[in-house]
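debug: dumping io for the single-chain case to check the tokenizer round-trip. Nothing else runs in this session.
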Amino acid sequence: MQSDDLFVRKLRQPPSRSSPHKSPRESKSLIGSGNSRHNGGARSLSESEFDPRDKGSGSPSAPRFKDPFILLGLAGNSQGPSAHEVKEKPPEGDPVAPRPKSFAHHDIQSILFDPFRRRESEVRKNVRSGASAASQIRTNSSPRRSLSSPEDPGDPGDGKDNDLLLSCPYFRNEVGGEEAEGQKDQGWDFCSVSPLHAPLISFPVRGPNASVSVLEEARERIRDSSYFVEYQDLGALYYRKYFYGKEHQNFFGVDERLGPVAISLRRDERESAQGVQYNYRIIFRTTELKTLRGSILEEAFPSSIRPNSSRAISPKKLLEYIVSEVNLQCLRLASNSPKVPETLLKLDEQGLSFQRKIGILYCRSGQSSEEEMYNNEVAGPAFQEFLSLLGDEVRLKGFDKYRAQLDNKTDSTGTHSLYTRYQDYEIMFHVSTMLPFTASNSQQLLRKRHIGNDIVTIVFQEPGALPFTPQTIRSHFQHVFIVVRVHSPCTDNTRYSVAVTRTADTPPFGPPLPTSLFRRSPELRDFLLSKAVNGENAAERGGKFLAMATRTREEYLRDLARDHVTTTTLDSCSSKLAILSLSKKRDRAGSTGTGDKGGKGTRWAYSVPPEFHSSGTLVWTVKAVSVSVSESIYMLGISSEMLVLVDPKKEREGAVSFHCSCRDVLGWTYSSKGGLDLYYGRAGRLTLCPIASNETEVENEINHIVKRLQVSKTIHGRQ
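debug: decoded output
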């Protein structure tokens, strides 16, 4: 295996001339029955539009392929500042050498990790956020008209409205029938959930792209509901699962370019078809909210690094190989304080919470303003009927579950509230009519101090209510509003219509909103709770919350580097390998073989590169296209469980442009131009070609992709 340095040098070489001979691979079928049975798949690209040697912007001779950092698609596209914000030009970062090809990423976040990126949250200044951005714009328009205005120099809104919801500056509306991102004809079977009668709502069995997080676990083991949770960083549990309470090493320091950093290392063993293997796990944390999480099998290291005995690879060599961008001289071994692992847990899981608080406002007939809704003292029958569908009314005094800052001792925030559980989440609702009412205060601050600090708010409208607009709301935190209008309340024919609005910097989220009405049923509850949970997860990817999370993360990292380190440097630690060595030693020196048990004297011989047996995700840079994937440059990731296409330019939307289980890959065929047609699901086809500097390297990359797929298919064949 070539070293990382050699890989970088190859990428920086000018592209070789085209080989004079024809590629030895014609349209050769490896698995399945060939092209004839896949007539319904995506079109194949013609030679002129999908040639890995072309000299356009997608060519290896283009500037972005002369630098590994740009090649991997990690350079962000800078957007021009809008009128309501001022951006400073972020400082230039150094190019990042690509991870070793043998590094197996744990999750999507790890694939997107770029320690030199200057996040939007770090360079924004004076940004109004949430409903407050819209409420600053005042017009004299009729409340029945769209409130976007030519006087607004910034975002005018999307122009979409209906009887429930008006178009609003700095907001994006969902009124029903919008196509869900990542669900356009991916070649899947569809399941249906019906608001009135089946089938009216359809969703793919494999879920939306925004729901993809951990890549080395089967999706079926995670999913237990009609809808998927989106924008959830389940990879944050990596430290808890593989490091916490186990023997491992932590190193902290302050890098002059990266700022405070924290690194965790562990060597463990895993059982495989080849027997027992050693695996090196790493977590690399910077102030960037993305974290590098993954592993490398010991046999996948270059021979110059790999030990010839039971001793582990030294931490210094390990870090030089995997994270060469960090200044190793700044690192110190962490102390043995019990606070260290606890702080690392909090640091890694700061954005992962399974408790949610959701506001609910009550809007009577003829009402639309924030003040009118807050001043509705008690709930009417239609509102009470709706609340009973969402959750259970609980007595606050003595309540021992998640209370969302409500008083469970003295009834100062009301005597009762609404509580429920949804999938893995505890949800407490801040219901306006259950919070204290103050007759002498028209602003109802005792109510607003809770609901005004909720990211997601449900607005319940009685028949005859005026359309809702976020312009009437004054809050920096309220970013998502789910508007529910009841029809024929308190009858056997009660129905509900739904519309959703979100801030412009909140990415779209599911489940998709149907055009039909919902009946009063568990399906409506499932839909609303899923929409609310996903809405909060999506909103937290916006500028305000990113800035808050980044500040908190940096404080954790600086505290660790300042107060929880020893004087032991990485150099002096390199000879103290007992921490990373396993108690169960194996003498593996001087023998090469394929033994079945991984016993004494065994060093594995592989028919394919050893990293292809990793559970994590190996990454290639490819050009790809299908019916649901626009032609572009992507990062192709293949784990033991899943295949994904990642577009770093769409990081805000989750970056995943396509995914499928390796179980659903039916087969693949080579094309005469060096590409690969991959067939999946029901007549789905994905055409891809690796990006490399010459035909030989393209062919090598294709062969590696095929080998990785073959190993994954073999794993599932044994299950």
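debug: round-trip ok. The first helix runs from residue 4 to 12.
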